[in-house]
Amino acid sequence: MRSLSAVVNNVLRFHSGGSSNLKPTKLSDALRTAVNFVQPLARQTGVLLTSQLTLGATEIAADATELQQVILNLVCNALRHTPVGGLIRLGARLECKSEKQIAIVEVADGGSGIRAEDLPHVFEAGFTTTRQSPGLGLTVCQRIVEQHNGTITATSELGKGSTFRMEFPIL
């Protein structure tokens, strides 16, 4: 049922275009809420979901609900491709980039990975490698991250898993 709800939410979000209601938000609080929400789903599928948030009280201009949607989409994708007994890690930390601090959020799994020829297309609307998905989840993630003045990238190795990295400017 959650899967169906997530698909409906993605379709609605994709077609609405949406505009974010950005306000100062403690990034670690938004991420912790998202992890707590999706944790039962991970347990139910036999996958360990861990989080390591080293952001302290760092704030970004964000809509917490939309950030949680991004984490939900990324973790649900990871769950589809991670075997029972596998691991999904959510990490968040600060890094310096061009003499400014930015918040880095990564969702990494030890799943099946993404083929090299598919990797450039994962954020395209309608792109999917499974029949269970309309191919909108990662497109929605990219739109939300960009509305938060951030960027999202994906790296992957077949048979070893994938990592989705988001960068956000801090306040």
Would you kindly provide a brief summary of this structure?
With 171 residues, this protein is of the alpha+beta class. The protein has four helices and seven strands, in the order αβαββαββαββ.
What does this structure look like?
The chain is an alpha+beta fold and 171 residues long. It has one domain: Heat Shock Protein 90 (2-Layer Sandwich), CATH 3.30.565. It contains four helices and seven strands; from the N terminus they run H-E-H-E-E-H-E-E-H-E-E. The protein has a five-stranded mixed beta sheet. Helix 1 packs across helix 4 (137-147), helix 2 (27-44) packs parallel to helix 3 (64-81) and helix 3 (64-81) runs antiparallel to helix 4. The longest helix has 18 residues, at 27-44. The radius of gyration is 15 Å and the shape is globular. It starts with a helix and ends with a strand. Mean pLDDT is 88; it is low at 1-5.
